[in-house]
Specification:
288 residues, alpha/beta, Rossmann fold, six-stranded parallel beta sheet, 11 helices, 19% strand, Shikimate dehydrogenase (NADP(+)), Aminoacid_DH-like_N_sf, EC 1.1.1.25, aromatic amino acid biosynthesis, NADP
């Protein structure tokens, strides 16, 4: 690892409504700790008064200004793909990109949501039984988390979504990659939860803007583990209810940090971030 103080990196986050993101301070603090000149800018189309059609121009501007990388969030994780030169295997499999490296005239897309959830799950629930798992949510984040879950040895993933066709499409895609029967679209949530070892939550429910529970509380029992991807607030209503019932829980902070860990490594061309230090910094910022 090189920490030459003359090394400088200019990175950013493109999305809509991203002013509360914890990603910029996580990156900049770690850059400081590594002795780097590291700047991370928020490029918020809402603040800038731009529409979603501005993405090609924003990418071109970032290249011309010398950005080494960009994180990509809602609503661009899929629309950015045609604007890229290469995709990592995960990004191609998920058809979603949240990290773009700008290097040697090329735009290379990655998905660190997938690796971020996987790292958080290994750290927080290393010995959790995972024969049958229910996942709520089949959107962009849900696809990344489902891919990570099956990579972590989940035997069968039951995917539930308010859009049944979306759940069916994700399950079919996962089976094509991981094998027949590894994922199914859930049609009876109560029955699926009755057979499940754990629950992964990958919808916006529980965020400050969308309070509440994503499923009836009575479907949770003490033998379940519950993994959350929402991290603002860090303790969602789902996690409060699950903890009160005696469930093991995993909050969404780990995924937020570990996706940033992987993006930092990609942006810097291999400078190894200190994941534990980034976790401590994340915790110090407050997430309510």
């Amino acid at each position: 690892m090189s920490t030459n103080p003359k090394q400088s990196f200019l990175c950013g986050l493109i999305g809509a409504g991203i002013q509360a993101s914890r990603t910029p301070p996580m990156h900049e603090r770690e850059g400081d700790e590594q002795g780097l000149r590291y700047m991370y800018k928020k490029i918020d189309i809402e603040t800038l008064g731009l529409g979603t059609d501005a993405l090609p121009d924003l990418l071109l501007a970032a290249e011309r200004m010398g950005f080494c990388g960009l994180n990509i969030t809602f609503p661009f994780k899929q629309t950015v793909i045609p604007l890229l030169d290469e995709l990592s295997d995960d990004a191609r499999a998920l058809n979603a990109v949240n990290t773009v490296v700008l290097r040697d005239g090329k735009r290379i897309g990655y998905n660190t949501d997938c690796s971020g959830f996987g790292a958080s799950f290994r750290r927080g629930l290393p010995d959790a039984k995972r024969d049958r798992v229910v996942q709520l949510g089949a959107g962009g984040a849900g696809a990344a988390v489902a891919h990570a879950a099956l990579s972590q040895g989940v035997g069968q993933l039951s995917v539930c979504d308010s859009d049944v066709a979306r759940a069916e499409a994700l399950a079919a895609s996962l089976c094509a990659q991981f094998g027949a029967g590894r994922a199914v679209a859930c049609t009876d949530l109560a029955a699926a939860m009755d057979q499940a070892d754990g629950l992964i939550h990958a919808t916006p429910t529980g965020m400050a803007k969308y309070p509440g529970l994503p499923l009836p509380a009575e479907l949770l029992r003490p033998s379940h583990w519950v993994a959350e991807i929402v991290y603002f607030p860090l303790e969602t209503e789902l996690l409060r209810v699950a903890s009160a019932k005696g469930c093991r829980t995993l909050d969404g902070g780990g995924m937020a940090v570990f996706q940033a860990v992987d993006a930092f490594r990609l942006f810097t061309g291999g400078v190894e971030p200190d994941a534990e230090r980034m976790l401590r910094h994340f915790a110090s910022m407050g997430t309510r």
